[in-house]
Amino acid sequence: MTEQPLWQPDPATAKASHLAKFTTRAQAVATTEFADYASLHRWSVADPGAFWAEFWDYAGIIADTPYATPVRNLERFPGATWFPGARMNFAANLLRYRDDQVALVSVLETGARRTLTYRALHDQTAKVAARLAELGVKPGDRVAGWLPNVPEAIIAMLATASLGALWSSCSPDFGASGALDRFGQIEPRVLFACDGYHYNGKRLSTIAKVQEVVTRVSSIEQLIWVQLMDEVPVDGETFASLLQRPSVPLTFTTQAFDSPLYILYSSGTTGKPKCIVHGVGGTLLQHMKEHQLHVDLHRQDRLFFFTTCGWMMWNWLVSALATGCTLVLYDGSPFHPGPETLWSLAESEGVTVFGTSAKYLSALEKAGYSPGNRHDLSALRSLLSTGSPLAQEGFRYVYRDIKADVHLASISGGTDLISCFVLGAPTLPVWEGEIQCAGLGMDVDVWDDASDPLRGEKGELVCKTAFPSCPIGFWNDPDDEKFHEAYFARFPGVWAHGDFAEITAHDGFIIHGRSDAVLNPGGVRIGTAEIYRQVEQIEEIQEAICVGQQWQDDVRVVLFVVLQPGATLDDKLRDTIRDRIRRNASPRHVPAVILTVPEIPRTLSGKIVELAVRDVIHQRPVKNTSALANPEALDHFRHRAELGR
Questions:
Q1: Which domain holds residue 156?
Q2: Strand order, beta sheet including 382-386
Q3: Are residues 332 and 263 in the same domain?
């Protein structure tokens, strides 16, 4: 760990940030001076009603009816009621700008590019909303999207939200069974689906699987095709035909703060995915807080995040319309035709905030690609990384090969809260390997099994008090039994997030992996991310997955590696792996067994599935392989003679 930060904010820029301006306002409300971010954060969790009410005013939340009080029953978690009495509409807040600034830039892998102004976005949303209203869509109904990351997905969501209905989406790479597992549970009335998409140089038709899902989900009354392949579907109507309709005024159905807005899904690797319901006001307020106070988004910004409609970062990205900035959308492979793809996009579109996954940054580094030496990234001021822990080497790579003067914000949260628990702040330094801070209004801590707080030690990431974007609950879970079991069973009244984490000396955070995938050799808890951090720096290794195997009344660490082309896992490479882990982690981290596999199983959102691999090597069934992008990869882990089973 370096003694000096990798980046320090420019004092003038920090002073002009949303966070600095909000801090000045908050000091007036709290009648005290906040000397630093830590003191502001302490106030935000000690008096959350005052904090969130002040941010409501700062962000200019649009509500037809004001709230009676910021929060009731704060002591109940879950069960607090935020901003009771307020009547609002999510889409109205995202469509507050109706001018000729570009709202959306859409680029496909093929190079096809479109733009849409805020005025056009508003008008097209109105036309689609009018059609949904004709179809009888009303508050409480579900509308689904099986779409790429294109403007039509955003327009369909906004139209749905304008009517007070619920939106739920997944990406077109989901198979029919994956879509059925999701849409079959929530029973949408309308489905927006594409006829195909491009990925990695391939043209992929989706018509057959869309028709299969429509046939098998009886609730779907209308199918609306988004034609990206110019194929002629045999049923349903087209999105393009909706836009040919005469212009109509867009009206917004007002709803309570805690009315349902989105249904998102857990990965579903241990059974059918859980359907997580998020509310109108909590989603809006939390996203606007993160965009403005933590990312420092302004109207002149151009925000890009590499995501699909099946990942919560899509929902997070779209909410940035409320700041009036320009969203840059991309759909396709980030490595087709080569590693330059997203950086050429960032250069040509003048992206100021670039969001991606830690896995993508690692793959770039492995490819030896240096975006900073090949592209004009003068506009870029912030880089966001999420999806998995960003290793120390990833931090170094960003500052060495992308841009020396960039705010690198590693962020972590999840689908569960449709936002972040820990993330960046534009007024704080960046320390190697550390997430900068806990989010304002998020009472985050790290606990041991006895509910005692830990500093400089690894434990369970928890949130001790209520926050507005806590889910309303799970779909089809009337007694909230599954909801409570998921987050509140371990520490009653406290959210246990399922991350194995550590608070640093700088009040930053390190995520060491999922706590349900923690390894326990000899009773010592080890996060898998600690092992990946070492192994993936070895030149011969492309990627790895690590699990614990029950062995002789204990647990032994088993490491599977995917090798670079031409590499061989011989005794010399095994010794290199073990030596690096022993030196840079600990002897406890050293795997007892190291094996090769040709590929690693991943969820449809790209996350590796340690629990599924653990089940396979113990000859237990994997309950829902349809949640995996490549379920056949599990076969490489079955009945391995080297594991002695």
A1: 88-503
A2: 113-117, 102-108, 326-331, 302-305, 353-357, 382-386, 407-410
A3: yes
Q: Which of 503, 526, 560 is the last residue of a domain?
A: 503
Evaluate whether 483 touches 78 at the Cβ level (below 8 Å).
yes
| Beta bridge pairs of residue 92 | none
For residues 456 and 565, state if they share a domain. Answer: no
Do residues 108 and 203 share a domain?
yes
Listed in order, strand segments (DSSP E) in 316-391 are 326-331, 353-357, 382-386
pLDDT for 232 equals: 66
Residue 25: in which H helix or E strand, if any?
Answer: helix 18-30
Q: Is residue 76 part of a domain?
A: no
pLDDT along the chain (645 residues), means of 10: 86 97 98 97 98 98 97 96 98 98 98 98 98 98 98 98 97 90 96 96 94 96 94 81 96 98 83 91 98 98 96 97 98 96 98 95 93 98 92 95 98 95 98 97 96 95 98 95 95 94 96 82 78 90 92 88 94 94 85 95 85 90 82 93 83
Sorted by sequence, the CB contacts under 8 Å of residue 613 that are 6+ apart come out as 545, 547, 560, 601, 634, 637
- Clarify whether residues 200 and 272 are in a common domain: yes
552: left (phi over 0), alpha (psi -120 to 50) or beta: left
| 3-state SS, residue 188 | coil
Q: Encoding tokens for residue 512?
A: 């060491």
CB 163 within 8 A of CB 118: no
Question: How far is it, in rounded angstroms, from Cα 580 to Cα 132?
Answer: 58
CA distance 612 to 625: 9
C-alpha 117/C-alpha 301 separation (Å) is 15
CA 312, CA 307: separation in Å to the nearest integer?
A: 8
Number of domains composing the chain: 2
8 Å CB contact between 189 and 137: yes
First to last CA, the chain: 40
Q: Where among 503, 528, 547 does a domain terminate?
A: 503
Q: Where residue 614 sits, what CATH number does that domain have?
A: 3.30.300.30
Same domain, 421 and 525: no
Q: Do the beta carbons of residue 334 and residue 304 sit within 8 Å?
A: no
How far is it between the farthest Cα atoms of the chain?
A: 73
Q: In the numeric block, which tokens belong to residue 258?
A: 């805690």
Exposed / middle / buried, residue 370 (Cβ in 10 Å: 0-12, 13-18, 19+)? middle
Task: Write the burial class of residue 476 (CB in 10 Å: 0-12 exposed, 13-18 middle, 19+ buried).
Answer: exposed
Count helices and strands (H / E) in the chain.
Answer: 20, 32
352/310 same-domain check: yes
Is-contact 519 526, C-beta < 8 A? Answer: yes
Write b or e for each residue in 321-330: b if 16 or more Cβ atoms lie within 10 A of its Cβ, otherwise e: bbbbbbbbbb
Give the model confidence (pLDDT) of 273-297 as tens digits: 899 999 999 999 999 999 999 999 9
3-class secondary structure, 599: coil
Q: What is the dihedral of CA 494, 497, 501, 503, to 10 degrees?
A: -40
Q: What is the pLDDT of residues 221-230, one digit of tens each?
A: 999 999 999 7
Give Cα separations from 482 to 265, 476, 486, 487, 515 (angstroms).
14, 10, 6, 9, 19
511 inside domain: no
